[in-house]
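TL;DR need structure tokens for one chain.
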Amino acid sequence: MNKEKFLIKLSVIAFAVIFLFSNVYADNGKRIIGARANGMSDVSVSIVDFWSCANNQATLGFYERIAVGASYDNKFLLKNTSIASVGVVVPVRKIGVISCNMQFYGGTGYGNFLVGLCYSRSFGKVISASLQFDYLLNYFGDAYYGKRNGFTFEIGLYGRVTKNFSLGFHVYNPARLRMITYNDVKEYIPTVFRLGGSYRFGEKCLLGIDLIKDLDTRFQVATGLEYRFADYLVLRGGVKFPDFSFSLGLGTQVKGIQIDISSSYHTVLGYSPQLSIVYQIK
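>> reply
TL;DR here they are.
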């Protein structure tokens, strides 16, 4: 079996396990970080990008520069539902890529905090894999409910099927781990599966699609397009359904500084503007 058939078969089998579980889960679901991905309606699982440190860490096996970044997602234009994130990616020659990301969601009444530490590695020029460990902390403004914490992990796979076509697979909390709540009741952390593919048309255009299944919500499909007008300007757009939303974004990169802005629109909840900045060290 050649490498193309092997990668496709592996991804199909991995995604099929989505339908083997049907439990209900608590908070702390998987959030897609970075205005580049947000500008393509969260398409990210098969795209090599700095914010893969939070989205699909396996693609970092092919990320070649030390970089730091910060991102802010003003979800539905509400402070208490916004997401602030920072990340660091450090490639280590002949060893792999070490990355760390931190995310904070919420406000004074309620919030949750995630810290993830990951190891990613490529195997040749075709396949890469990752393993990330996460610490989760939730807090409530009410002293009665207090805080709760837990641990989970993420695994990812990424493969370059051809020069222009890539596949990615990622699962958050595959072991269905749980958090200890204020009353010592164990609540499941969401388990989220994502399978995606991307195809590059020449040097300027990239098309991606992600299939998402959170075991507590219905199946989602995200599609996104990225078009490079010039070396310093990229336009993005995307659509997600059946919970219909669409997004637009712009990106630029000057002397190692990458700046991306985007905004998504949900037909019920409204607008969510995003901004992210990444500095790549030579």
